[in-house]
Specification:
Bound molecules: 5-amino-5-deoxy-1-O-phosphono-D-mannitol
Shape: globular
Strand content: 15-25%
CATH class of the largest domain: Alpha Beta
Number of helices: 13
Largest sheet: 5 strands, parallel
Radius of gyration: 23 Å
């Protein structure tokens, strides 16, 4: 609130939506997200639900709901101011796609020692981990899609059953959870209302909550028992890109960490995953070179005017397909759906015609043969097919219209790379169609309403 009679005063109160104050010299700020403050100050205060803030040019007073004064710690924002600028890129989305190799380095930094994973933020003993009989991963949108990969990572490495839930559904269905359940909440912003509500529901049931988030001091980071920061840097574009891939890396690190702490025998497998993760910054850069971008643009020109596009894949390739279709629909407004490739013949195949391009993710080696036969089924219905394949795959190009190769990496972590051409193709299609790429219609970066 501002008042003409007191021009040097602003009053703000936090109710449901996030609020952060910027502490400057001779100036103070109110914002909903720290990225808005970066150009002005690195000092901030996170405001809790129900708190009342009175700001003048030279002072900030904070009171609780009973109007008692509250002392707040001033926190330092470590993000670079340049990170909130486009830095020569036409859109934040493209800039953030290009920032992925550096973001991967930050997510991994200080967390791998030899063949061991270490988190500065917390540590867990085998006894604590063995308490958990079940894991829920709860998130929304792109973070939910990261959870679908996380399920496969954790089940394979840690051998605890994992269920992945959409946060807006989770607490309305009386989920079975107690002190023997770990709830992992994933959220770039750390402020998504449904995810925060799911976290609180889990705490009410005495579950331990582990958060994977990008924003230090966010509601989710503050309220969880354990936090893994993805250190992606500010993500401004509504379409999430670098946050998604760094969430995946955090999940791989977590899987290896839990298996290591439980002293599980899969030592070589863990070592191979860690080696692969360390190669990601360098290998991912190959997907951002001019010749590769030219190939993606060629695909965008070919498929960009379609009215419907299907994405198919199996296992982790299906999880990637879901993320690819969300990216495409949110920024290009093309109707896009992702299907488990084996499900097509149970109904959706009826929709496949020469007017329905299909993007097939064919990088999981364990399911390759089965996916390939599904791709042949859509080709037989005259669909144009773009396939995402592994480098060295000489088979797929023989029966599809175009391929985009993923450089060689440990096959278990290939989703981190395989999604990058999907991010790029969505971007270039949206550009061809003249869409508002960074701020698509009807969408907000932080969804702070349930
Ligand atoms: O901040 P969060 O990760 O909790 O956000 C969740 C979703 O709103 C978000 O991922 C959304 O789906 C993106 N716009 C997708 O690109």
């Amino acid at each position: 609130m501002i008042c003409a009679d007191e021009p040097d005063k602003m009053i703000a109160c936090r109710k449901d939506s996030p609020m952060v104050l910027g502490v400057g010299e001779g100036e103070n700020f109110i914002a909903s997200d720290v990225s808005a403050l970066l150009a002005y100050t690195r000092s901030c205060m996170y405001i809790e639900e129900g708190e009342l803030c009175i700001l003048t040019q030279n002072g900030i007073t904070i009171k609780n709901h009973a109007l008692q004064q509250v002392e707040k710690e001033i926190q330092t924002i470590t993000w670079d101011a340049e990170a909130a600028e486009k830095g020569g890129f036409e859109h934040f989305m493209l800039k953030e796609i290009f920032e992925q190799p550096e973001a991967f380095k930050r997510t991994l930094s200080g967390r791998i020692h030899g063949n061991q994973v270490h988190f500065d933020e917390f540590s867990l003993t085998a006894e604590e981990i063995n308490q958990w009989q079940k894991i829920y991963i709860v998130a929304c949108g792109t973070a939910y899609h990261a959870g679908l990969v996380g399920k496969q990572v954790l089940e394979k490495l840690v051998r605890i059953p994992v269920e992945v839930e959409i946060a807006s559904e989770f607490r309305y269905r009386d989920p079975m959870m107690d002190e023997h359940t770990l709830v992992i909440v994933i959220s770039q912003s750390g402020e998504t209302a449904d995810t925060v509500a799911a976290l609180r529901e889990a705490k009410l049931h005495r579950c331990k909550v582990l958060a994977i988030t990008n924003v230090v001091g966010s509601a989710i980071a503050r309220e969880a028992d354990y936090v893994i920061y993805i250190w992606a840097g500010p993500e401004i574009s509504v379409a999430s890109t670098k946050a998604y891939t760094t969430m995946l890396i955090a999940e791989y690190l977590l899987g290896v960490y839990l298996a290591q702490q439980k002293e599980m025998a899969n030592f070589d497998e863990r070592a191979a995953i860690l080696k692969g993760l360390q190669q990601l910054p360098e290998v991912s850069a190959k997907l951002l070179t001019e010749p590769y971008l030219a190939e993606v643009q060629r695909a965008a020109e070919r498929y960009g005017m379609a009215e419907n596009i299907f994405f198919i894949g199996r296992g982790m390739d299906w999880a990637i397909a879901l993320e690819g279709s969300l990216k495409l629909k949110e920024i290009s407004y093309i109707h896009a759906e992702a299907y488990a490739a084996g499900e097509l013949k149970h109904g959706t195949l009826a929709l496949v015609t020469e007017k329905t391009p299909v993007i097939a993710i064919c990088v999981q080696k364990s399911t390759y043969d089965k996916t390939a036969s599904n791709v042949k089924e859509v080709k037989a219905r005259d669909a144009k097919v773009l396939a995402i394949i592994n480098e060295g795959d000489t088979q797929t190009a023989k029966f599809v219209d175009q391929t985009l190769e993923i450089p060689t990496i440990n096959n278990f972590i290939v989703p981190v790379l395989a999604v990058i051409p999907l991010q790029l193709i969505s971007y270039y299609i949206a550009k061809i169609r003249g869409c508002e790429i960074d701020q698509p219609r009807n969408l907000a970066k932080s969804v702070t309403v349930e």
